[in-house]
Amino acid sequence: MRILRSLLLMCAVAAAQVKHPAGIDVTGPLDAPTATRLRLKQAASDPATCVASPTEFYWNTATNRLRYCSATNVWSDVPAGGSGDVVGPASAVSGNAASFNGTTGKLIQDSGKALPSGSIVGTTDTQTLTNKTLTTPIITSYTVAGLPAATTAGQLAVVTDAATSGSCTSGGGSAYALCRATGSVWQPVGDGRSKSYWVQTIPVGINASGSNSGVSYCGFGFNSCSNAFFQRTVVAPGPGTMRNFYLHTDSTQGADGNLVCTWRKNDVAQTLSVTIPISAAAGLFSDTTNSFSFDAGDFLSLRCLNSSATLSTLRTYSVVVDN
Fold first, then answer.
1. What are the structural domains of the chain?
2. Helices H, strands E: what count in the chain?
3. pLDDT per position as a tens digit, 178-204
């Protein structure tokens, strides 16, 4: 300590000890280059009085600090090597990180937290988390057009403008989708909602163009279609979204007209629809792009319009309903 070294240079007595019950006032240097120690008075607390000039010193046995009279009757610690030095506790746990104690910026303490055994990373460094729990994590959201390149496999992103529920490639809508990068493309992970599958497995005939203008309403669980809307409608028990419409025909479509099957809500056509072209062979057709939402109490039905004079037959059809 610089002040203590100065005291030793100024007040050292060569090869001898100076003892006086009242102390000694040194007003000039003591030339004692061979002195090995300086004995100061000791106390467990500050004496009641002191004078600042000449400066008084004593060793505080309670704090193990050198104290000096900085003003009349005012005692202060002698800085340990200069102003601004940081003071730590008497002991600490090896390997623990230090933290500030208070707001002075000069006192530190044992934080009680050990440093990680691996590399210490910064806020922007890549880090692999093991055995960690994420509490209310925030995942960055994007529009489909704003998604970054899917080159980092496993990266997750929330899409806020999916054209349909679960879409990660078609934007412009208001649906949400959780998307995962494969290393080349973004694919849907799932939207966290429950799903149900509505399936009609009983083959039903579709009117030819000469019968009821080729209009047929089809439902679920019936063994035939009807030209009356309310005879083949389903009342929605709750809100949801209908999507992924698959339809399998059981006959070749007539050469004089196509077949269009469209889902309707309250007898109003929706975008979810399948068209079987003229002369199309029996097979599977689908619309996995469009969807529509509905509320509890809405009437849902499948309306097929056959523009051919030849009767068409549906073997089966199905949709996915998100609740």
1. 2-77 (no CATH), 141-188 (no CATH), 195-322 (2.60.120.40)
2. 1, 20
3. 888 888 888 887 555 566 778 777 677
Encode 8-33: b = buried (16+ Cβ within 10 Å), e = exposed: beebbbeeeeeeeeeeeeeeeebebe
Residue among 152, 160, 158, 163 at smallest CA distance from 185: 152
Q: Checking DSSP bridges between strand 96-100 and strand 74-77, what pairing results, if any? A: unpaired
For the chain, percent of residues with pLDDT exceeding 70: 83
Cα separation, 164 vs 320, in Å, equals 12
Average pLDDT over residues 265-276: 94
Number of residues that this document lists for the chain: 323
Q: Which of these ranges, 18-27, 79-88, 209-218, has the smallest mean pLDDT? A: 18-27
Token pair, residue 278, equals 């003229």
Rounded CA-CA distance 290/303 in Å is: 16
pLDDT per residue as tens digits for the range 243-270: 999 999 988 999 999 999 999 999 999 9
Integer Cα distance of 315 and 261 in angstroms: 13
What the block records as the tokens of 184 is 């080349």
| CB neighbour class for 59 (10 Å; exposed up to 12, middle 13-18, buried from 19) | middle
CA distance 61 to 5: 20
CA angle 183, 187, 192 (to 5 degrees): 130
Give the pLDDT band (50/70/90) at residue 81: low
